[in-house]
């Protein structure tokens, strides 16, 4: 069972009762722009994905995605470790628009990496974002990631201007 607590946040595992909050937090403009495959237009779509992600905790076949909650239990986003076909892993995160610019993504990623990387047997984690996603770039830089590529590269099935970072422990 995943449970990480920081000063302001709890990172835990999804439960089905989070589907409504996942749906609502997925609809913001940044999500639509930067990660359109993570927009859930209906609660049912969100519930299907939450159910799938809960299954990954058991079978390990897919991304390991964990909700980020405020201490009062309010769902504000997620952190994730996503496997690539070559055996490497990428960190991902999203904080809903109503909760951005408060340092929550940085706090969550800083707490998540030292737990998930040893669990997966990793000493290196990749981070990739669109080059114009300045908020995501700042999160990775504040978390100690080093930029090793900026240019056109693969992003969600297309060739787009991206930045790629890496983190070592």
How would you explain this protein's 3D organization?
The chain has helices spanning 19-26, 29-34, 43-59, 104-120, 134-142, and strands at 4-5, 9-11, 64-70, 75-83, 89-95, 124-130, 146-155, 158-168. With 169 residues, the chain is of the alpha+beta class. An eight-stranded mixed beta sheet has the order 1-2-3-4-5-6-8-7, sandwiched between helices. A hairpin with a 2-residue loop joins strand 7 and strand 8. Helix 1 (19-26) crosses helix 3 (43-59). The two termini are 23 Å apart. The model has no long low-confidence stretch (mean pLDDT 94).
Mean pLDDT: 94
Strand order of the largest sheet: 1-2-3-4-5-6-8-7
**Number of DSSP-assigned strands:** 8
Series of H and E elements: EEHHHEEEHEHEE
The main pleated sheet reads as: 8 strands, mixed
Radius of gyration equals 15 Å
User: Judging from the principal axes of the Cα atoms, what is the shape?
Assistant: globular
Annotation field: number of helices: 5
Helix content: 25-40%
Please state roughly what percent of the residues sit in beta strands, choosing from under 5%, 5-15%, 15-25%, 25-35%, 35-45% or over 45%. Answer: 25-35%
N/C terminus separation: 23 Å
Low-confidence stretches: none
Provide the structure class.
alpha+beta
Keywords:
169 residues; 8 strands
Blueprint of the fold:
Elements: E1 4-5, E2 9-11, H1 19-26, H2 29-34, H3 43-59, E3 64-70, E4 75-83, E5 89-95, H4 104-120, E6 124-130, H5 134-142, E7 146-155, E8 158-168
Parallel strand pairs: 5-6
Antiparallel strand pairs: 1-2, 2-3, 3-4, 4-5, 6-8, 7-8
């Amino acid at each position: 069972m995943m449970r990480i607590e920081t000063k302001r946040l709890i990172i835990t595992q999804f439960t089905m009762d989070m589907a409504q909050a996942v749906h609502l937090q997925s609809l913001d403009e940044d999500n639509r722009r930067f990660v359109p495959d993570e927009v859930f237009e209906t609660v049912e779509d969100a519930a299907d994905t939450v159910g799938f992600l809960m299954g990954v905790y058991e079978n390990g076949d897919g991304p390991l995605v964990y909700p980020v909650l405020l201490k009062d239990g309010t769902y504000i986003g997620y952190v994730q470790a996503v496997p690539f076909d070559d055996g490497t892993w990428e960190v991902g995160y999203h904080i809903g628009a109503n909760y951005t610019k408060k340092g929550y993504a940085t706090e969550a990623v800083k707490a998540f990496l030292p737990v998930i990387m040893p669990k997966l047997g990793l000493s290196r984690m990749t981070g990739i974002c669109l080059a114009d996603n300045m908020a995501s770039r700042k999160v990775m830089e504040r978390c100690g990631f080093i930029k090793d590529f900026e240019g056109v590269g693969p992003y969600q099935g297309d060739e787009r201007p991206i930045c790629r970072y890496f983190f070592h422990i």
